[in-house]
Write a sequence for this structure.
């Protein structure tokens, strides 16, 4: 009986099984065919991209209907399918744009793509979790690979420091998570999201201990999302880790953690919305302002992107705190637009290199409009969108967030959020100013691979022409968000 | 009897876990850590989770803590200064030893085999009932097979990570290759040269 039902559920986890098998083939292949040689680097990247695309194909060919399997440990619906596809596509793009950087920094190791694949596998497990135990295992699989990736540049002191910092703080956050989950298990007697939502309805479960457990769980997920006040590690880790790894950190784990947060808040804990809504709201506002003020004085572009990520995730928290269908939809739109803009920015940052030295200081972008007009225009479009200027994608995403906030009668919160957005516009526009108005000491041309140029171009075009397809995209995302009906 | 055992194990484990942090000597910290694990084991036995208890002993005390001890001993600690405090520290060592011995004796006294006469008395290990190990094995490979496999993947990542971060390839190290040595023959290895008298080889 048990065995039979497991066999019937196996098609729900087919993507994960495929990716794990691919990895199990990958590792011996890498070891026995000289995986640490420069000449092999691109082969292994292509091999891992094929694995990811195969997984994507399996996900898209699978069933979109809502289904739970393995004794309610995992769930599958259109939200899961959409977020999994987004994670895999972002992972593929990060692998493509980091190729040249890895050659430059001598990161030929085949373990690099292996670890990226493992962390994506962890994210897939996280996204389809319907139980805190599944979620925890996915989270650990993802984070463990990320800790190693942060420290993968062994000869760099900063990279080792970043890895150690991330590992110690991440382990602490995992401890908080487990403590919170065990308290929740003690109160309600279950770790399953779906059973939890019905168990929490009974009033005798509503206690101070319940609030404590929810605070512990949410703070550990806020740590993974680098939400203020759990953001302290972010600038250091983003700066210390190799830039290609930073690009991965800034985009892919965020999508997975947001997806998980949606599932926890909107399925497991929706009936005690009044317990967590203020918590999420305050975290969101705090990170919008920490992100805005923290970035003002940064001269390193990687640190600036770290603060930008903090404030962007803050807006998503604002929308998620509402507990409404509109908030869910707005946060889905925002995370999609953020993914596109962050990938574009990192495609730019990873191609900024002069005489084999990476240019990480904002001042070194001076005069870029004259020497490399293509890069300057594309990056400016992305920055203006991040700043939230009207016809671009970032504006529409922010518009939907604030629309949802205002519809829930939180006018003053919308005003505070817009104030934060105005402050953060300064440092985005400052980079545009440096590129267009400042005089360069010497002009140089950027040579990067066509694929990277193409990704930068596509992301700029997607952002610039957002209004043309905004209607159909938002309808699509609204359909996706209806997977969770409130 | 049960509350007495519970409070003994609980109090000692809390005190010794504080001592892990407060002990100045890292070796002592590790010993206190082992003591904490031992008491946690006792608590598990009291709850009737004998499989978890044994696992804790084997994995944590047997492997992890001893590994910690080796690592700590490899740190640059002035062992001469440690030896001078031998007489001062001897009572502490005796105390820990006595406590451990006492716990072992208590555990043996506390354990009773036989058919349980009172339901809910966890100190009895009931004969013929499905024990912990079997019950865990049954759910681990059926209900929780997905989680079990995920945990396996996490361990694989941990192994890969450890290798990536510590393995260094050295090109200039000479290694013995037995096959190469055996396949070497006289013709390749030795060159006979006619040397004229009064001149060198070169």
């Amino acid at each position: 009986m048990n065995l039979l039902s497991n066999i019937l559920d196996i098609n729900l986890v087919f993507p994960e099984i495929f990716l794990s098998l691919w990895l199990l083939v990958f590792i011996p292949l890498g070891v026995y065919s000289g995986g640490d040689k420069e000449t092999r680097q691109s082969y292994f990247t292509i091999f891992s991209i094929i694995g990811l695309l195969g997984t994507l194909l399996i996900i898209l060919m699978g069933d979109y209907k809502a289904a739970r399997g393995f004794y309610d440990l995992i769930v599958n619906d259109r939200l899961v399918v959409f977020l999994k596809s987004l994670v895999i596509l972002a992972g593929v793009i990060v692998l493509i744009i980091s190729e040249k950087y890895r050659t430059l920094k001598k990161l030929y190791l085949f373990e690099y793509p292996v670890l990226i694949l493992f962390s994506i596998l962890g994210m897939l497990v996280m996204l389809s979790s319907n139980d805190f135990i599944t979620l925890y295992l996915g989270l650990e699989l993802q984070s463990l690979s990320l800790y190693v990736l942060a420290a993968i540049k062994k000869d760099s002191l900063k990279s080792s420091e970043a890895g150690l910092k991330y590992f110690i703080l991440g382990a602490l956050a995992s401890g908080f998570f487990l403590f919170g989950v065990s308290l929740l298990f003690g109160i309600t007697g279950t770790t399953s999201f779906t059973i939890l939502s019905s168990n929490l309805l009974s009033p005798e479960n509503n206690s101070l201990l319940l609030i404590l457990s929810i605070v512990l769980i949410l703070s550990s997920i806020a740590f993974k999302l680098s939400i203020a006040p759990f953001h302290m590690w972010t600038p250091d880790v983003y700066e210390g880790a190799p830039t290609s790894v930073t690009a991965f950190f800034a985009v892919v784990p965020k999508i997975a953690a947001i997806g998980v947060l949606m599932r926890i808040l909107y399925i497991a804990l929706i009936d005690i919305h009044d317990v967590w809504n203020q918590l999420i709201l305050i975290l969101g506002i705090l990170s919008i302002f920490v992100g805005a003020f923290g970035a003002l004085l940064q001269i390193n572009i990687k640190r600036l992107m770290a603060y930008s990520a903090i404030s962007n995730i803050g807006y998503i928290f604002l929308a998620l705190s509402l507990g409404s269908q509109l908030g869910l939809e707005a946060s889905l739109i925002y995370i999609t637009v953020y993914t596109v803009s962050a990938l574009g920015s990192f495609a730019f940052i990873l191609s900024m290199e002069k005489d084999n030295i990476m240019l990480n200081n904002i001042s070194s972008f001076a005069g870029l409009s004259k020497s490399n007009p293509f890069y300057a225009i594309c990056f400016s479009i992305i920055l203006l969108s991040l700043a939230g200027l009207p016809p671009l994608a970032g504006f529409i995403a922010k518009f939907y967030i604030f629309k949802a906030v205002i519809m829930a009668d939180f006018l003053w919160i919308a005003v505070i959020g817009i104030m934060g957005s105005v402050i953060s516009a300064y440092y985005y526009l400052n980079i545009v100013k440096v590129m267009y108005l400042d005089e360069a000491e010497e002009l140089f041309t950027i040579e990067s691979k066509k694929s990277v140029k193409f990704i930068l171009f596509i992301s700029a075009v997607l952002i610039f022409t957002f209004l043309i397809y905004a209607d159909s995209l938002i309808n699509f995302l609204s359909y996706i968000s209806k997977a969770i009906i409130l | 009897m049960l509350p007495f055992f519970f409070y003994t194990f609980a109090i000692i484990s809390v005190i010794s876990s504080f001592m892990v942090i407060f002990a100045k000597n890292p070796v002592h910290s590790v010993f206190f850590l082992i003591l904490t694990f031992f008491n946690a084991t006792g608590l598990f036995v009291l709850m009737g989770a004998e499989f978890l208890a044994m696992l804790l002993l084997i994995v944590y005390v047997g492997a992890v803590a001893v590994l910690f001890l080796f690592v700590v001993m490899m740190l640059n600690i002035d062992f001469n200064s440690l030896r001078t405090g031998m007489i001062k520290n001897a009572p502490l060592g005796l105390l820990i030893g006595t406590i451990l011995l006492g716990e072992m004796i208590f555990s043996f006294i506390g354990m009773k085999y036989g058919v349980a006469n009172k339901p809910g008395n966890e100190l009895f290990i009931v004969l013929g009932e499905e024990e912990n190990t079997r019950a865990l094995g049954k759910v681990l490979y059926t209900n929780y097979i997905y989680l079990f496999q995920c945990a396996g993947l996490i361990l694989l990542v941990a192994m890969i990570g450890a290798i990536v971060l510590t393995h260094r390839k050295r090109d200039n190290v000479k290694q013995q290759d037995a096959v190469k040595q055996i396949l070497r023959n006289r013709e390749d290895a030795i060159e006979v040269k006619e040397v004229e008298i009064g001149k060198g080889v070169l």
